[in-house]
Design goal:
The structure is a homodimer of 464-residue chains.
Chain A: H1 5-14, E1 19-21, E2 43-45, H2 50-62, E3 67-70, E4 87-90, E5 97-101, E6 106-110, H3 115-124, H4 141-146, H5 154-157, E7 164-170, E8 176-179, H6 192-196, E9 205-212, E10 219-227, H7 230-243, E11 250-254, H8 256-265, E12 279-287, H9 292-306, E13 312-315, H10 319-330, H11 335-338, E14 343-348, H12 351-368, E15 373-379, E16 384-390, H13 396-412, H14 437-450
Parallel strand pairs in A: 2-4, 3-4
Antiparallel strand pairs in A: 1-2, 5-6, 6-9, 7-8, 7-9, 10-12, 10-13, 11-12, 11-15, 14-16, 15-16
Helix pairs in contact in A: 1-2, 7-9, 12-13
Amino acid sequence: MAYPPIVIALIEALGADVVSLRETIAGRRWADWSGEPADIPLALLRPRSTAQLSEAMSICTLYCQPVVVQGGLTGLAGGACTRASDVAISLERMTRICEVDPVSATLTAEAGATLESVQNAAAEAGLTFPFDLGARGSCTIGGNLATNAGGNRVIKYGMARDQVLGLEAVLANGDVIDSTHKMVKNNTGYDLRNLMIGSEGTLGIITRVVLRLRPPASAVATAWCGVGTYESVTGLLSLALRRLPTGVSAFEVMWPSFVDYMTTHVPDIRNPLDERHNFHVLMESVGTTEPEHQEVFQCFLEEALEEGLIENAALAQSKGDAAEFWRIRDSTAEFPVLMPDLIAFDVSFSIADIGRAAQECDAALRNTWPTSTVLTYGHLGDGNLHLIVQVPGADAATVDAVENLVYGIVRDYRGSVSAEHGIGSKKRDVLGHTRSVAELAAMRAIKAALDPHNILNPDKVLPA
Amino acid sequence: MAYPPIVIALIEALGADVVSLRETIAGRRWADWSGEPADIPLALLRPRSTAQLSEAMSICTLYCQPVVVQGGLTGLAGGACTRASDVAISLERMTRICEVDPVSATLTAEAGATLESVQNAAAEAGLTFPFDLGARGSCTIGGNLATNAGGNRVIKYGMARDQVLGLEAVLANGDVIDSTHKMVKNNTGYDLRNLMIGSEGTLGIITRVVLRLRPPASAVATAWCGVGTYESVTGLLSLALRRLPTGVSAFEVMWPSFVDYMTTHVPDIRNPLDERHNFHVLMESVGTTEPEHQEVFQCFLEEALEEGLIENAALAQSKGDAAEFWRIRDSTAEFPVLMPDLIAFDVSFSIADIGRAAQECDAALRNTWPTSTVLTYGHLGDGNLHLIVQVPGADAATVDAVENLVYGIVRDYRGSVSAEHGIGSKKRDVLGHTRSVAELAAMRAIKAALDPHNILNPDKVLPA
């Protein structure tokens, strides 16, 4: 069998240890969790160093060979899916934790390290890497940055980009941008770091990162609150930010549809409050000093009750209680089993708009498809709404219609069609709902400048 | 007198109200505080709206006319200085606070609004815009973002870029990028926002910004500490971050040279501690609840004393005490009078390296120029060192030699030649000490893509 010249060139330069041929690639290593179309790639490269990757990219530039970079393949937008004509690049052999510097409070790691291994290395040094996602055991820190992932604690610690001091990346032509410094302040020219972060492998390949660590949070206070109106939900958030010295580390809001569905469909899940409320809020605040932290939190809850912002609340008295509360929110992991045909949304609004926007989506969906299931929940403190829609017997046209309806409302509110999952291939056609023509033109100009042969994850992110 | 065609075209399109001719420009509106070379520009534009500015840029593109954008002209790197062949653009007529949204905790303003007016508008709404600089009354929020300014509270709240949710900018060709949304999470394509921020007017002109507001900090604890070793300084920072629930809002370190100079040269300034220490640390922590906040802070100080991290400390008992401590640190404002011929540095290192790097600079400078004055201080919690050097009778060659020496040490430590002041024209030639050849090439490619005629602040930031 004759191999394409690019594959022969890669094997000659890097050896069979680095280059796996199409027929030897196993384990669905060409698709992520998005369900987007994917095919087995031409070859899979697994470089052991930045130098090897740089050499591979020089060769791919020479052959104008498209590449797709892969982390833990847990993405939800199709950014890591390959076509038959692509070369896949996995960073699974570049997983080293290079250094933990406890004085500067930094951790340097290769991009293929899993999020969990980064968290563990920080904890071993008596510090914490607070950024967290459900997929922590599989997703890689490089993938987290390439997609600017969000997760559970954005309200306190920010998105993935906010954890980064420096990074190293390989550009399309093989050039290595080594910006792996540990400095908090560095006003020296353009912000290439933030340009690489969130570009989903279309501008460069992140190979090494310097992350900011934080002091460990030893005290955790958690409550499950029943709230009557959306105004009270935002009032509760505002009061929490004013009263709690350490602010809030989670402010998850669930509409009744969500709580009803979870408590009836998932075994052993029950509402911590006896009554049904219009909104349920799972609040968490991390701090440093027990028992003061718990006392301040309890005082705040009492004030919120007195002011009528909450109708009722359950305060976690133990780690077990807190885990019970979180199980309700995290039972979204059961969705693929419960609703294999669900249509999921990850959108953003200003905090002031979420209540109305969510209601508008819900009403329009139920009105158009009366038999549909619509579940609404979100990281409200970050303006991030998740919406789960199931229409019995939906065909492709129905899915399109559901998406058009929701993304239309997002556009009307000047919201974001992707809060934390990214664009990939899945949302490419609705990118223009959030970004203007002038913005898309500027993005295309940047893409053409840094990747003139369009070989880095082509056909992802930017609409054709 | 014949005006150049570009000036005539601008007057025809925008009117004499917007376009001031060279001979009518007064008040040194062509230079900032940097002392960099500057000349009266061809004309000064003062647009009243983004639409007017967009039109002006379309015309400048047609004529390939270089422009320099100006905020409050308080920059220290020469970014706003004009040449005789430039057209200056001032945003002094675009100063509106457009909206404060207390629910979403955001403020929208035109870029010409002063930092102080933004702070005041936030305070009137019961919130706070914590970003702060000495030049707050003159500098503009657009200038703060164009230079990604730093200031006093970076350790807690981050740099200027960390305050921004959305922005509007006019590109070289007159295109308007309207990204003035209020969303915390928005993973939709490339991070144009952070690319504009810190580009010092070379990639686009920021015209409107959406800023993130925070709950007001009602409690402030301040201490002046004497510390024996650099290891104890970093140990003190680490303990503070672990013990103080709200962390630290300032951690300013002064070497003895600085404190000695200030207490002997500036009237009414005295060291709050009787003894001389190897390091003096001005610490501040802001919180929400008095008196608990003060109590926790005092407990922390006692622990630091017991652990031997600090030799002695003065705890501010009143706002007056705190103001006295800050007067020592802020007496740097007297430098232009005390040392008109000073050579000032704004550099960064990893926190672990600052102690050694500062000592190396100090020793090398005093060794080479025995009669020199060298003062060392900095925002240590951010890795930011300021170094003030005066060499009696220094000529231009000596100034060059002093700069070469310090920037050489910065390069050896992989530090940053500009922590918070930016590059402008002043540090253009040492940008390569911090950024690699590959990084500079990527920056140039981006500049060429977004400003193909090189009309936005040409000859600034990127070395020729």
